[in-house]
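Record copied across here:
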Amino acid sequence: MRVKNLVMLILSILLVAVFASGQAQIIAEAKIPFAFSVAGKVLAAGGYRFTEHSNTRVIIVRSSDGGTSVMAGIITRLAAGIHTSPQDSHIVFDKVGDSYTLSEIWAPDRDGFMLHITKEKHEHRIMDTPK
């Protein structure tokens, strides 16, 4: 049990060091009206902040009250010209049945971030975010 605790402590310290050394940038904030999953974790409806850390390939999804935080790996960047205008800012969810999964995040004047690929038949739910 002590070895497991020691490993968890070391991983936590490394994670803090990685994020402390990079620039964090909020790319979107939104009130999501439904529960959704991110990186295998289901989050309740509510306000969320989506932050990119420049030295990692992850997006942090954090509830507005700071109670919930999830890291989602960036699969790839998406060229802004194919999906968005310089003023657009939105979040894309893949909907299968009654379940929503965070799929893409788009911010003004930037390429988008793909966080999840849904292989089965699905529909997109696009939410505009405040500018």
Summary: The longest helix spans residues 2-21. The chain has one domain: 24-128. The radius of gyration is 16 Å. Residues 24-128 form one domain.
